[in-house]
Amino acid sequence: MTLKCALPFIFCLLAAPAFAEIHEVRMYNRNANGAMQYEPSYLAIAQGDSVRFIPEQSSHNAATIDTMLPDGAVPFKSKINEDFTTELTVSGRYGIKCSPHFSMGMVMIIDVGEVDTATSDTLPDDLPNRAKDRFSAILETALK
Ligand SMILES: [Cu+2]
Fold first, then answer.
1. What residues have their beta carbon closer than 5 A to ion ligand 1?
2. Which stretches make up the Blue (type 1) copper domain (predicted)?
């Protein structure tokens, strides 16, 4: 490679958001943890990273929960069976649900950047019981 060719390549490496990553989450009817699961069910990522939701098995999606969305974050909702990637630029704790399986406890948590656990550890009252139980279990195992 001549120097003339190498320079744009090096510039590209430097200019790119070098630390932005894409984290993969797989959606299952059943896995080792039980029925209706995101795998992993907890992610801690950097601000500006992306999350890709992969439908390993059919009839799932990924959607934000209005009462578990950081201030200023844009809600999202993928289509059922969609291979969906979203960039998360606002820091804080995101509760994610599978729309058809929310009441069955198909949820996960994504912590983006610095999370104020003093305010975000409290779960909202309007969650279905099984979603609330799953969130509690996720937070207990992921953060302790
Ligand atoms: Cu689902």
1. 60, 98, 101, 106
2. 28-112
Residue 10 belongs to a domain: no
The tens digit of pLDDT for each residue in 60-85 reads 999 999 999 999 999 999 999 999 99
- Which of these, 23, 7, 8, 39, lies nearest to 84 by C-alpha position? 23
> In this structure, what CATH number is given to the domain that contains residue 61?
2.60.40.420
- CA of 104 relative to ligand 1 center, distance in Å: 8
What does the pLDDT look like over 29-61, one tens digit per residue? 999 999 999 999 999 999 999 999 999 999 999
Could you give the number of structural domains in the chain? 1
Between 7 and 30, residue with greater pLDDT: 30
Ligand 1 center–CA 30 separation, angstroms:
10
Say if residue 23 carries a ligand binding annotation. no
CA–CA distance, 140 with 94 (Å, rounded to integer): 16
